[in-house]
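User: I'm curious whether this sequence folds into something compact or stays loose and floppy. Could you predict its structure so I can see for myself?
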Amino acid sequence: MSLAANQSADSILKQLRNPFKMGLYFFLKLPSCWFWGIKVQTIDMDKAVIRIPFSWRTQNPFQSIYFAAQLGAAELSTGLLCLTALAGKPKISMLITGVKADFTKKAKAATYFTCDQGAQLEALLQKVAAGEETGQIELVSVGRMADGTKVCEAVFSWSFKKK
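Assistant: Here's the prediction. I'll summarize afterward.
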């Protein structure tokens, strides 16, 4: 990664780690994330962890976190990795082309969605930036409650195309 790309990624990571800036971004651009109280727990070039609380805003009638709220947090964990990996590269568009999810337990507490495929994503985007017309990757986000219980695994198919 070049120095300019490194500086761009560092700048984006700094913004993503700022709770005020992320809250404002959610309010203006992703109001459902703001309403649900989603927070960026940790983020770097390799991994993103997103926290969704268990509250009246995220709860369904069955006393667990609503599936759509879980998928919103899961998608954000993959999407933020994409944004950081794109920093400093030529213009590349990104689009979700598919979603698969398995819900294995009821999410009855705050849940943390983790995507740790930053290295694979970076390798793909290097190829796309170097001239390959399109690239596709499946990014997996696993949701676990604080006690380690796995509640959800979501797979997002992302497509990238050099502009």
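Summary: The two ends are 20 Å apart (CA to CA). The chain has a mean pLDDT of 91.
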